[in-house]
Amino acid sequence: MKSNHNNSILNSLVKYLRLKQYQFEVTFCPYVLTPGEKLVFNTILIILLSLFTMLITLYLPLQIESLITRARPYFLGDIVVVDSAPPTRTITMIEMGMRL
């Protein structure tokens, strides 16, 4: 009984994956391509999707944090943001040893 249940789950998963493959091929038309062209098409698609995923995971949290930081004064009133970076010092040409 247990193996029959596992078999039906496996069959339904295979059926679902075949349906998704069919929907992909009908939507993006790779079924009209030769096997080599399909390989290039799918490779480019996978690379673009992986780069987009990396972009989302790496930069979206930083952008959201920046957006929240910039929007905070509008929602909470005037809050003075103190920059924790030390002041920069300008070096003159004389200090660098250059002559005009």
From TrEMBL:
Membrane topology of this protein: Multi-pass membrane protein
Main location: endoplasmic reticulum
Places the protein is found: Endoplasmic reticulum membrane
Membrane-crossing residue ranges in chain numbering: 40-62
Keyword annotations of the record: Endoplasmic reticulum, Membrane, Transmembrane, Transmembrane helix
Pfam family of the protein (one): SPT_ssu-like
InterPro entries: Ser_palmitoyltrfase_ssu-like
A GO cellular component annotation in the UniProt record: endoplasmic reticulum membrane
Protein name: Uncharacterized protein
Naturally occurring in which organism (per UniProt): Ascodesmis nigricans
